[in-house]
Amino acid sequence: IDLLSQLPTRRFVHALLEDQQLLVKARRSALYSSPGGHLFRQLLDLLSFYCDFPLNDHTGEQLKEDDVVGQHYDKVSQLQRLFFKHWPQLYDLALANCAAACAPDGLRRALRQLQPDQLRQLVCKQLRLVGEDDPWAEDPEFLLDVLVTTYQRRASQRAAINAMPIYPTEGLLWDTTQIPTAAYSGGRPLALPKLNLQFLSPSDYLLRNFHLFRLEAAYEVREDIEVALQRLNPGRDFDDNIVFRGWSKMATPLTSFRITQVSPPRVGEQHPASVLAEVVVDTRGMRGDVASGWDELKQHDVLFVMGVNPPNEQEAAEAAKAARLRKGQALPLVQRVGLLAVRGAEVVEVRDEEGGLMNDFTGRVRLDERKPPKGFVRTYVIALDAAQYQLDVNATAAGDASDVYPALNVVMRRDAKENNFKAVLESIRDSLNEQLVIPEWLVDIFLGYGDAGAAHYTAMPGLLRTVDFKDTFLDAQHLIDSFPQYDVTFSSGSSGGGGSSSISTGSGQYDVAALPPPPYKVTFPADQQQLKPAPGSTKRGADAKATTDAAEPPAADGSSGSRPVLTVEHYRPIN
């Protein structure tokens, strides 16, 4: 993965991995399909991501989405022409449109018409996807997987990042392969992107930061959830009803939860445009400062709604026996409280017991019409994550999971200073959806390639020798102090035929009152290079010799030595 994520080694390693079909072989291994291969599958997904990264391996130029689609369809068209010319039994596939020809199910179903020796001839001799001496070439299913993997269309990065939920869920929060616990010793790898010294493209840099910041925020959310659930201490009473024996400042049981609106998807999207729900909380019985914290919630604050179903004594004993816990050892918190789901949401509006708006800054309530909230019941209209809602609906429809939303019975808030991760993640995602414009002189330095000195202004083409500083300087002495590396020569050009004069500060003997006032036009030397740092101009400080040279006074005979000359021209601005 590290070799693929850096351009100098990617151009060689990528070709080798494709030639050996490493991804297909790894996915057919026993570890990939075993229950203990979760970390291996995540690492393989990360490897697959960098194998399919839209980048020209030789020039380092990132490919646009249209270019990637065009290259894919050209490759599929070549495959269809091959089918049409040499394989009559695949005419239907050869005459189909490109989208149907590269569909995995249709392509696999059509290729099963070929005999094993015919399939080997197609893959090994005609397409040259697998070497003839490769032992895996004897397996027809492996050849089918290679062909389907090579010609199926990959999902674009933009579509994948837009379909990813912003808020962490219970699956991510307690996934120790991505978010390790405090007991992690570093003895095993983690399926995480790395912030190296080099990156493939600006999008690669943003994507790595997006995933890492999302996991960092999830780690903090997990800690807050564990503290809140421990304080609430959910359990069962004698009638087997869920009760909360404790209390928490940042979490409270829900009075009710219901989804009120699911908007249709926007054009080109697969999930609803918005999903609104109502959360009802009763602050009666809360301490004054705790209740005021819930009353101060406002629009754009982030809440987490959770569903807990604590086991009874018999179920807890069976779970402890299945986990092979020692005597006196407690179950993990998630099993002890029966955490079913965690869903994030953003507050849209807050209403009191009589339905009046609270903390509204949208202008719907005038300042002189604002009143103290009524009663103790607070209704929070929240916007759920539409992408996560669609994933939940799909899982419920497929029978892979039950509907988690009726089971939500706890709401948690967080400190506003620590709860800004949603805005940061959305900003990174919006940047990925836009065409990034970075100056050419900064791209290589930003990605970690090339010479850092090439970005210095003296090495850039089109360097301006004369710069009009207008009213930048307060007076002539201010200008002289700003360029201690130069000998400054003031010249007043002739305006109206009155001649010209010059005053040099190189000797160190000059009358400040005789120097012309601003504004100034400054002309730098034609052969200027990057000069030695002036005293105090570097963060770490220059060495003693450089500092001495930069501050060395001029020679006693009045010569300026090797110090360059800065020509300053005073002019009269046009009113």
Describe the structure.
- The structure is a single chain.
- The protein has 575 residues and is an alpha+beta fold.
- 37% of the residues lie in helices and 14% in strands.
- The chain has helices at residues 7-20, 22-27, 30-33, 38-51, 65-86, 91-94, 98-101, 104-111, 116-126, 140-151, 157-162, 170-173, 202-232, 288-295, 313-322, 333-337, 386-398, 421-433, 440-447, 476-482, 544-550, and strands spanning 234-236, 242-244, 251-253, 256-262, 275-282, 302-308, 339-351, 357-358, 377-384, 410-413, 466-470, 487-492, 501-504, 520-523, 565-570.
- Strands 3, 4, 5, 6, 7, 8, 9 and 10 form an eight-stranded antiparallel β-sheet that branches.
- Helix 8 (104-111) packs antiparallel against helix 10, helix 9 packs across helix 10 and helix 13 (202-232) runs antiparallel to helix 18 (421-433).
- The chain is flat.
- The two termini are 63 Å apart.
Count of runs of 4 or more consecutive helical residues? 21
Pairing-aware structural class of the strands and helices?
alpha+beta
- Work out the helicity level: 25-40%
| Number of separate strands | 15
**Measured on Cα atoms, how large is the radius of gyration?**
34 Å
Shape: flat
How would you characterize the largest beta sheet?
8 strands, antiparallel
Tell me the fraction of residues in β-strands, as a range: 5-15%
Give unreliable regions as ranges: 494-499, 530-560
